[in-house]
## 1
Amino acid sequence: MHPETSPSGDTWQVGDVILASRFLLGTAGYPSPQVLADAIAASGTQIVTVGLKRQLSAAGDNGFIEIIRAAMRAQGARLLPNTAGCTTAREAVQLAQMARELYGTPWVKLEVVGDEYTLQPDPLELVEAARQLAKDGFTVFPYCTDDLVTCKRLLDAGCPLLMPWGAPIGSGQGLINPFALRTLRERLPDVVLIVDAGIGAPSHAAQALEMGYDAVLLNSAVSQSPDPVRMAGAFRQAIEAGRAAYRAGVMARQDFAVATTPVTGNPFLIGNAP
């Protein structure tokens, strides 16, 4: 869906790029290229991520990326290369530079992993890589934790947005620390925030949007589903519903019961009672 045709007129922005879809979709692990293309179409996404290391290890086979590009052209989507698999700032910067040459885009999803078990980002290497890439003219989408101080350092380094995790990559646990995510949204009200990683069900995505997050990025929850295309559509609907709920105003939680129709002490009539 193009921004100018968005039925609600509700868009968001990265630099000078205006977007209507709040669903960012990964491309790894699909059962076939055609299923991937169909899932991209069903998702309505305008940002598709691809791992550069995967491409470099594909022995020169460009069929995969061409399928992605064809699917993207049909809905005006943009490519977001990522530095998945990098463990140092130097490695991530080099890979990002290669991605810019290969794909012709200054956008990069920056991943610098510090722990092989949890795939948790290394905050020091991540900030250093972000600083170097921002100076080099990249639009950096940093995959980070929900730590407020680290997020502020990334903004200071030149990142135009943040991508805090909901849970470890591929875990499907959803938003395991809602308090931290709400804190980020409250403390950084004008920053584009995208929940990246850990989302396993459409309800998780809806929750993120209800909290005021601008978008979500996910991969495994769709690619590993028995029916990736249908699941992509389910996530699209959940994301749209979550955003609509946020704009409408989600009901505040209460620690006690509040009667929907309070009647205590108030006379009322039923039907035609005399």
## 2
Amino acid sequence: MNPLVALHNTHVIHRARAGGLLTRDRVHALTAADLTVAPGETVGVVGESGCGKSTLAKVLVGVARPTSGTVSFKGRDLWSMPAAERRATVGASTGMVFQDPSTALNRRLPVRRILRDPLDVHARGSRAGREERVRELMALVGLPRALGDALPGQLSGGQRQRVAIARALALDPDLVVADEPTSALDVSVRAQILNLLLDLRERLGLALVFVSHDIQTVRRMSDRVITMYLGRIVEECPADRVTDRARHPYTRALFSATPGLLDPIDPIPLAGPVPSATRPPNGCPFRTRCWRADDRCAAVMPDFSAASHTAHRYRCHHPVEEDQSTQDLVRQSLPREPP
């Protein structure tokens, strides 16, 4: 199956600011990213804050332009298209759900107008047809029709996120990117929004990229999980293998920090300095915190290696064995007491 969207050797570098002035420092937000998303597939993206997850999400939907590399959508290079064609392609075929619906929605517009705006911009159907589509969208995400005249400030957090999801679906996109879609919501509402996204994915046949720091939720939502560290994709693993078959030490450490309630374990401690995205270290970026690192890790960035499963790859000179338990890794990673 041909990929819906593909990144190849994609970099995003920002100029850093210091004291309000542009400096010569550069932030390496995304480095050498290679990624494909197939039609109907759900790809989860995990990693600590500042690892490049949101930058990757914006690149996938054409909001952020890469510094170098390519972004292909349905086989065509997005950034070689004329600007008008690119906007039409991205606007009609992709949707994005942002982290905080309070800031993502125009607080001065009623729900009906928010949902109709994409239809108006892309001149979809007649005026009556657009109004009917707004009603369909509200029903699709479980919003009562009576809320059509409400302003975002009059809605609950969960209702606002439902509006944001409906807006992302307005033009029947092939791909929806959800960037931390539940982190700003109360715990009691999160499960409702996650279940809604799962239901919509099945009903509409969407490709979904789900970005979150909640790695157990990502595992549940996804077909495949991408682990990012300091702007790099360091592992790509089927979701049903990521908890106990992940090969990269960082992926194992992430999942050990939020274990299942039925099988609690101690988290793998990550000691050592967290590197800066403005001055990333030589070699493997994780080596400053990795208990398995050696001189080779400091000298050479590892290439991708393939695991026994065809859809599993990782970048590590000293990968975790597939049958090695996380409990064993916890014991290995603890600092040894002097004799």
## 3
Amino acid sequence: MTETPKPTRRAGHGEDSIYWDAAKNRYVGAVSLGFAPNGKRRRPKVYGKTKTEVRAKLRDLKKEVESGVKSPANYTVAEAVKDWLERGLKGRDEETVTKNRRLAEKHVIPLIGKAKLKDLSADDVDDWLDDRSEALATRSLRDILAVLRRSIAHAQRRDKAVRNVALLVTAPEGKPGRPSKALNADQAKAVLAAARGSRLYAYLVLSLLSGVRTEEARPLTWDHVFLAPDEGVPPHVAVWRSVRRHGDTKTRKSRRTIALPKQVVDVLEEHLRWQKQERASKGMPWSREGLVFTTRSGEPLDAANVRRDFRAIVKKAGLAPEWTPRELRHSFVSLLSDHGIPLERIAMLVGHSSQATTEAVYRKQLRPVITQGAEAMDEIFADDHGEVAPEE
């Protein structure tokens, strides 16, 4: 119910005043902020339907004055998000920028973009997320909330916002997302059998039998692959780069050197011979600093193309098409766990900073027996490997 206007006493010097403006059909709040350099009195006003609303706006106005921030009256959430996308993501990986832009343009700007940033409340953000929870998974809800939080934080750094109300909100539970899956031993062997003869065969063998991330396999160069090292040193691969911005691996512990199972060594040796022959036939030089996995024209593999080719392979193997290349790493963890490798050793092999991540996200099975990673993969895939040159 709208408050009934009541007579108000005249405010004293320096006090706030709230009064009813019949012409505007609103309550008006005014606060004295002293005098401007030209001697004119500074007495900004705010408006609201109730005294309570006006008092709240006066408090926010005073906070702006105390913090030295002057929030633009008409600066919207959409403008804040667009400013962050344009200026706040400089130096970030291209995929990260694309992902955030897609989330912003689909879920943030169209739905709460028109709201004035200074008027945005925690309740507004809660309502927006609750509405989205019917369509998005929990992870996606957290992602779009992060977009809003970072956009407002960017506005704060530009003196365009006093507080970040998005920090007061927690993302709700959304729709159940598709859980990551892991191939069992028979499924893994079927996938590798279906991949033989394809350009992706060596790539899949390395990913599945060594736990290398797909983003680490794509930029891998031959000078980081040691198939015939010095005596006493097992064949190994130095996982020191990824396709992320500046070539850094995902975490510090992701930068690792891991031994290769015999099957991987054999397949990579065949892949190397085939690659040299293909380059020679096309008059292209081969370099030890060159990429291990490339397109027919020698260009780096594109993630989308890898996913497309992988879908065709799993379909050929008789599996559902929704499997993705990243689940080869989940499969590596589960196969080792099922074979008895202890959790702490698996975490080290896959480059996790904490074995909690290995257990909560990656491991799908558990058996308490202890062996070594590369040796275990040799046992799991024994007699299931053959040398087949990739198709032209």
## 4
Amino acid sequence: MPPEAPRTMPATAAETSAENPWPLRILTEKLKIHIENSPVTWVEGQLLEANVRNGHGYLTLRDVDADNSFSVTVWSSVMRKLESTPEVGARVVARVKPSLYAKTGRLSLNATDLRPVGLGELLARLERLRQALGAEGLFAMEHKLPLPVLPRTIGLITGRDSDAEKDVVRNATLRWPAVRFRIINTAVQGNDAVAQVRAALSELDADPNVEVIVIARGGGALEDLLPFSNEELIRDVFAATTPVVSAIGHEADRPILDDVADLRASTPTDAAKRIVPDLNEEFAGIELSRQRLDRAINNLLQREAQTITALRQRPVLANPQAMIDARAEDLGRWRERSMALIRHRVQRAGDELGHLRAQMRALSPQQTLDRGYSVTQLADGTVVRTAEELQPGQGLRIRVAAGKLSATVDEIFPAAPATEAL
């Protein structure tokens, strides 16, 4: 058989195949080059392991909010520069660069600086986050949901068999024995707390029977309460459609959850007092209201009775006939006055009529005839005014004061001139 041709090494991973694979060392070398070209990064976490051997530090760093961890190596040259030795449980920030140990394929982080996160730094971070969320409007009062007066079911998120759970349940039951709870126990500190509380919040918010949700935890150090200032949890509470009550720690403790919650209770006991009414107080209030209502009704009846008595004592009600008699007398006086005015007016009208009749008679033609004058007319009734209008022998009719007569013109005498008449 002819000898096989020498195999050409694939230049890239995409060119490899089952017939032409890479040796493992090639992949390891390429990964090492790629990984160690990554930039230097500052990361934050909590130390789960902290072993120092031969001056070198071998740490396990875990995310503070999620179940993610990574091995971190701190070489002795860096360890000597640290102010304190790393301890399990400490919260730190580290300046790291990824590194791949080619012999075993172990990926780790090499730390060139490691700093503990102090209380002051945590408080500063929380304050910056609080201000940023507040600027977005997550804490505005117009977004707060009102709590129901008497919730049917209360959702409670708290630690298992915790004092906070006992305080809420006991005090709420003492105030309103018929109250019902749906309790979800979660971690309330540590790396799993945020994820578990968020899941419980989502489950209770989706339950139509739950009318208010209480997130409760007892007091603790600032580091223990950090999950209740987690940004993702804060945004979940803001988006919830069910009212949320924050009851974290004591009066002095104030995680960011207190600001976004629809109601902030200073303690779990205070939360129980504010989400359900006190049965005894309600009975006392009902009794007080009944007493006030009785007094108001009695006072109203007394006032109305006094008003009726006063009305009955008025003359118009004591002797109703007196009002009728008085009005009858008034009517009689007005009738008499009206008749007198009418008679007087009729008398004056009669006098005026007599005067007018006398004036008319004085001016009438008959009055003139009665004084001896007569009216001469032609046959057609035309009144004769001058002698020149007539002809001798013409017939005339003459009207005197009493009766008429006829005549014939015998002779005409013209009227004398005006000078002669004078």
